[in-house]
Design brief:
It is a single chain. This protein is an alpha/beta fold and about 325 residues long. The protein is about 65% helix and about 10% strand. It contains 8 helices and 5 strands. The protein has a 5-stranded mixed β-sheet. Helix 1 crosses helix 6. The radius of gyration is 59 Å and the shape is rod-shaped.
Length: about 325
């Protein structure tokens, strides 16, 4: 089992190297022609020489071998290229199946797609695909009436550089998948599982790299760093203030308790004096009542003595008679 896995690993590594070299090799091989075939006037562009369109005037076609419309236009485009010297332009073409990066850089969504370039300024050609219309577009300078591609969507912009890398990466993945399933005979779902695991591992590695970069750019502050003399003095003053606060609170509470006690004693004294005054008043009222009773009893006693004296006098007079 181990030698077989080792051979599969070597095959996979060989496949990666072939895919990495496939783009330049394809561009290099397409630049040549067989001795028995007529030389084509159309310039083949790839990822390594596409920057040639940034200089001079170009007419560039994006096509695919399997596209019926592209196949119908092939003869017209060859005839148009033969007139390129008279028109003062360069005619080129790009195979999107071999150059996914360039199709992403120019954001090609339909086939065939034709661009006009003049010193790095790109315009999309949307006219008829006949030879007369193509020649009239150059001779009559109709391209001047067409609005150029916005700067941020220009193939030479930073954004389209990223788009080209994304398309190239997707084509690279597709070629690896075809090699695994076609050449090595790996099952389709096993190939999908390999790409899923690779995606997870790449995500973990990128996350680790981002964490390391963030730690380097914004290091965390140390929790156990040495205190400066100013900080030590400030900390000592804060501790002393914290210790003095309970003592001050206890003293204030003692003074408040003493004040409360004095107030309660004053209230008790006032209440006792009020009670004594009430008792005196009650005693005065009782003594006054007794005196009034004595005064009221004295006339009664006098009247009783007078009546008894009168009765005795009347009895003595009756006896004398």
């Amino acid at each position: 089992m181990a030698p077989g896995r080792w051979r599969q690993g070597r095959r996979l590594l060989r496949a990666l190297l072939l895919v990495a070299l496939l783009g330049p090799a394809a561009c290099f091989s397409s630049s040549f022609y067989s001795p028995g075939e007529p030389r084509s006037s159309v310039r083949v562009l790839c990822g390594s020489n596409w920057s040639l369109v940034l200089q001079g005037q170009w007419m560039l076609e994006f096509y695919a071998p399997w596209c019926p419309a592209c196949q119908q236009m092939e003869a017209t485009w060859e005839s148009f290229a033969k007139e390129s010297e008279r028109l003062g332009i360069t005619v080129g073409k790009v195979d999107v199946t071999q150059e996914p990066g360039l199709s992403g850089r120019f954001f090609v969504t339909t086939l065939p797609t034709i661009y006009h370039a003049n010193d790095g300024v790109f315009r999309r050609y949307r006219g008829s695909r006949t030879l007369e219309d193509l020649q009239g577009y150059i001779l009559e300078r109709k391209w001047e009436a067409v609005e150029p591609v916005a700067g941020w969507k220009s193939p030479s912009s930073i954004m389209m550089h990223g788009m080209a890398g994304l398309f190239h990466f997707s084509g690279w993945i597709r070629q690896i998948h075809n090699y695994l399933t076609g050449t090595l005979g790996v099952h389709v779902w096993v190939s999908y599982a390999i790409f899923i695991l690779a995606t997870l591992l790449i995500g973990l590695l990128l996350g680790l790299v981002l964490v390391l970069i963030s730690d380097c750019l914004c290091p965390a502050k140390s929790k156990h760093r040495a205190e400066t003399p100013e900080e030590a003095i400030t900390k000592e003053n804060a501790e002393n203030a914290a210790l003095e606060e309970p003592q001050e609170d206890a003293r204030l509470s003692t003074e408040e308790a003493a004040d409360v006690k004095d107030l309660s004693d004053g209230e008790d004294a006032a209440n006792s004096s009020a009670d004594e005054s009430e008792e005196d008043l009650a005693l005065g009222k009782e003594s006054g009542g007794e005196e009034m009773e004595d005064l009221s009893e004295q006339p009664l006693a006098e009247s009783e003595t007078e009546s008894t004296v009168r009765q005795r006098k009347s009895q003595g007079a009756e006896k004398e008679l």
